[in-house]
Each structure stands twice: as C-alpha cells, then as structure tokens.
From TrEMBL:
Xref: PANTHER family: CILIA- AND FLAGELLA-ASSOCIATED PROTEIN 77
Name of the protein in question: CFA77 protein
Originating gene: Cfap77
Superkingdom, taxonomy of origin: Eukaryota
Species of provenance: Dicrurus megarhynchus
Coiled coil: none
Lineage: Eukaryota, Metazoa, Chordata, Craniata, Vertebrata
Pfam family, one: CFAP77
Amino acid sequence: QPELGKPTRNCYSLPGPDFTYGMYLHKRDGGVPEAIGHWDAVEAKPHVRVMPRDFVTMGRMAVGEGCTTAREFALYYKFKDLRCKDEGILRYGCKIPPGMTFGRPARPSTPFFDIMQHRYKELWMESQRARTVVQHVVKKKISDVRGNRTTFLRTHPLPVKEESFWHPQRFEKVWP
C-alpha cells in the first residue's frame, strides 16, 4: 500500500550520479579554435536513380512475341527488363535542362506612345458607343407592343364571303 499523499515507489534502483544516460560518442571537441581551423567537409554521394519498369511496353512486346498465358508473360518480363525513359522531369538532385527558366514570363511593356496619345481612352469610348447602340436596339425591340389576335385582324381583315343563292333541290318545291 502506498503512503498517504505520496506516489507508489517503483522497485528499480537508479544508477549513481556518475552514470551517463544514452550513448556516449567519442568526438574531438577543441572548442572555437578547432572549429575555425579545421572544417569537416562532407562529400555528397552520387545519387543513382533507378527508373520504374515499363510494363506497358513490355506487355506490348510480349503479345507481339506470342505470349498468351500469365506464366509466359512472367518469363518474358524476367527476360526483358525494360525501364521507363527519364523524360527530364525535374526532381531534387536532377540536372536542369539547358535553357530552362523558372517562374512566370514578364508582361509585355505598355507602349508609351499610346499612353501619350490617349489611345486607350479612345478605344474605351468606341466600345462604350457600340454598347450604347446595342442597348438602344434591344430597348427598342422590347418597347414594341406585341400584337394579339385582335390587332392582327384589324390590320389584316378576313376576306368577305360571297353569299351563294344555291339551295338543295328538296327545298325548291316546298308548299307555301
């Protein structure tokens, strides 16, 4: 049972005060003079990039050779080990193709002569005039009253029917 108000004691005994926790690394530490006088240079290891296998091309070639079963395809893949071609995709550690630049291209400079002659104002005014003409035509089309059947019949009257005096023969000899 733990004592009242105290945590439970573990049963492990701790090492003495001269014990170093962790791993001790032997290195020379000569202070500032050694750091200034002797630079530790690290040489970069060459990065050999292994491209993944090109299964699409290998499968196409295997069909061309006459492979039909999965076993034949596996044997063909073992025999022909084709890798994808490096298309020069920039990745960390790869060489940059010559003539390649990064970033967005700069905007073409605004012609100063056009600014001095107020060319942009004239272009804007022409576009506003054209817009006003189009709006006027649209408004005129909307303002026209749409004719209904009555207005159509007023402007285009129906042809007058000619009265015929013809009667069937059974109505000719009728007693008065």
